[in-house]
Queue: 3 jobs
Job 1
Amino acid sequence: MRGETVSNTVKRKLLRISELDEKSQTYTMSAYLIAQLGKNFAEGRNNIITGAEMLELAWSVIEEMQYMGGGMVVFLEANNDDKLLKYYNDNRFSQFDTRQTTSKDQESHELVQLLRLL
């Protein structure tokens, strides 16, 4: 995780649970990972559950895991899409870096890395 894109308040909190490599300005830490959240917009199925409800379900599982095993950071990657990033920002995730995907089968594209403190 790149250090220069994170606020000083978040940096202080992260330093309690991570290691900062001063040379590269990157943090190393354990974090919960939210994989992909997605919806199929098939006829009549797009109203069964909202994106907010899916994120809330994922968050409730993470909170339960945090209670049982500790930890305080949740991490996810998302496509660089303004509407999607606004959604995660509205749900208290903060952008801290980006990365390029690499795959033999697909063309490389940029993913935005986001975190949220528990």
Note: The beta strands are 18-21, 26-29, 32-33, 73-79, 94-100, 110-117.
Job 2
Amino acid sequence: MDKNTKKSELEVKARQWLTERGVTLDDIAELVYYLQSSYHEDLSMEDCLENVDQVLTKREVQNAILTGIQLDKLAEQKLLDQPLQKTIETDESLYGVDEIIAFSIVNVYGSIGFTNYGYIDKQKPGILERLNDKSTGECHTFLDDIVGAIAAAASSRLAHATADTGLIEDNLG
């Protein structure tokens, strides 16, 4: 993101909450690298980080981050009514609302994001493994899916940019 661009209050808060929950942009960029390195010979972590940064500028993404993290925090504090409290606290497999929020992020860059998201959600590499560790006492029912979705969207953005560059080069050559 251009350093001179002013971030909205919503974006600043979404980025802050990710950090407070132990997720760095580098963590997400590593997931993008995991998803895309075999498709892009010269892929750098800087490229991955740039794409993560751009995904985080989208209002839909910011809203999903804030909503999901708030629900996770309320579940940690046991402030939700039953049976929702237990469902979110245990990340019940048939709940699915956490994935629906993730899909709102994945959708921002087209259908390729669904494939990226499904793959990374099953593999759970890097930060996703930690976020899925139930022994910490923290609740990340929504956050793990949100982080995976941000990585999937950034991967999709990268794939689209690469395809567009390839088309331009094909037409010039």
Note: The two ends are 30 Å apart (CA to CA).
Job 3
Amino acid sequence: MSFIALVTLVVRDYDEAIAFYTDALGFELVEDTDRGDGSRWVVVRPSGAGAGSALLLARAKNEAERGRVGAQTGGRVGFFLHTEDFARDHARMTAAGVRFLEEPRHETYGSVAVFEDLYGNRWDLLQPA
């Protein structure tokens, strides 16, 4: 086993999730396949990630799943988006409407700021030291 290929992120709506991840975060849409039963197989990943980890955007299909949208990690930062240019990506994401919960911090391990996706899931934008 060489890497984790996909992590599922439960979303409210496929198209709004695709728009956020591609437009605001700059991810690429890898696949959007209609499964014929009203569901779709939607995969996005950071541009330039190659065959690395990607997100499977799965539309919530029942009340239990809808209740988890935006709260999949219990309010903790659950996702870590690495960058090679923190200042550039922070500025681009801010201009695209991404909501950062704090000012950028410069820690011993790198530059970091916590942001929320469109559902409230918390992410770190991180440029390792």
Note: The longest strand covers residues 27-34.
